[in-house]
Amino acid sequence: MKNTLRPTSIAFAICAAISSLSISANANDTLTKQLKDVEKSVVAWRRDIHQHPELGNRETRTADIAATHLEKLGMQVERNIGYTGVVGILKGDLPGPTVMLRADMDALPVTEKVDLPFASTQTTNYRGVDVGVMHACGHDTHVAMLMGAAEVLAGMKAELHGTVMFVFQPAEEGAPKGEEGGAELMLKEGIFDKHKPDVAFGLHITSGLNTGKIGYRSGPFMASADSFEIAIHGTQTHGSTPWNGVDPISAAAQVVTGVNHIISRQIDITKEPAIVSFGKISGGVRNNIIPEKVEMVGTIRNFDMDNRQQIFDKIKHTATHIAAASGATAEVEINEGYPVTINNPALTEQMLPSLNKVAGEDNVLLLPKITGAEDFSFYALEIPSVFVFLGGTPQGQDASKAPSNHSPYFFADEKALPLGTATLTQLTLDYMASHSANMQ
């Protein structure tokens, strides 16, 4: 959605949020002071983590920074979950629900091209290629903001109606080849068995919105992300005598056409949109040799879990039958990735006033569906959850033209960090206050 709404200063938004919290005057004073006091630390943490990025399942330094910080705040902390994941438990002095807050920690194999005094100079060998390592998706800011919220909420322990579960998660961008990782692995290793939250909140900084803006959507918000591999097996022959073999290239071309018709002709896209895209086709080595095999890979994006399974089934059916009609055979492998990220409608409606209070109503934007994916979706399948986007392009700049997340030129405005810290705090305190009021 194009941003045409008037800006509101971060300081004003935070003060407005603080004044409206359902807590005592003394707690208001404490919150005001702690949010202000933690700002410089959040920026310093972010710069340090940005300068020392780590890839998925290898975030040992970042995880240690987060875990040590939580331990210093007096929390019960568990390390090395799902390789490097950290869980911290803050138990308030008053009874109430358990709220989970999550930040992802991993960087990307991208060489940074932003001129910053704390720019990354880290390099690595990624899948046989020497490349830089960069927080090109802003996860460094997520860790810093959650550390800030942890410090603020720990300072309000006496006023907390419930428990806060801080999750610092590895490998949101995907685990190294041959490894599991991310939210799915942390759940598999039992983080919800030990501490089952009532709700979960998460946020992601984006260059697509200006600083001071928050973007949200109820229901399906971000797409599922799955991949497929299709191998067409024919019979190799000379290009001058195709009748002596089986041409997998011709069969593959027909498979591409057939698979592209699945979305346009076989899926009810009035229910939710979906996308199937081929990203690579390879086969053969010479102009006059019909090869034995052609390989194709692609991606599937979708916003409905039932449609998702239908698409899987139809890709297999279409590829195998078209190949058979040409005398070839097809092997189809569907690699399930991240499910649809779904914001619980009732919880979204409940927490929208909190977003309005912390950012100002004019700065909270209803976003369209996003075909990118997020592994926060795994948590949202287990418990009611809300995931929002935090603007990170400086005010006065055209966010629609800013380098996108994952770009080597991606830039996250540090002026967005106080709003992110305040948002996580606001959501937690308001949900606890509402739950406690309902219990009375």
Tell the overall outline: elongated
Helix content: 25-40%
CATH superfamily of the largest domain: Zn peptidases
Termini distance? 41 Å
Oligomer: single chain
Mean pLDDT: 93
Structural class: alpha+beta
Spatial sequence of strands, sheet with the most strands? 1-2-6-3-7-18-8-17
Classify the fold: give the CATH topology of the largest domain.
Aminopeptidase
What's the number of helices? 11
Please mark out the parts with pLDDT under 50 across 5 or more consecutive residues, or reply none: 1-22
By DSSP, the count of extended strands is: 18
What does this protein look like?
With 440 residues, the chain is α+β, with helices and mostly antiparallel strands. The protein has 2 domains: 10-222 and 340-439, Aminopeptidase; 224-338, 2-Layer Sandwich (Alpha-Beta Plaits), CATH 3.30.70. Helices cover 37% and strands 27% of the residues. It is built from 11 helices and 18 strands. An 8-stranded mixed β-sheet has the order 1-2-6-3-7-18-8-17, sandwiched between helices. A 4-stranded antiparallel β-sheet has the order 12-14-10-15, covered by helices on one side. Helix 2 packs antiparallel against helix 4 (139-154). The longest helix has 27 residues, at 25-51. The radius of gyration is 24 Å and the shape is elongated.
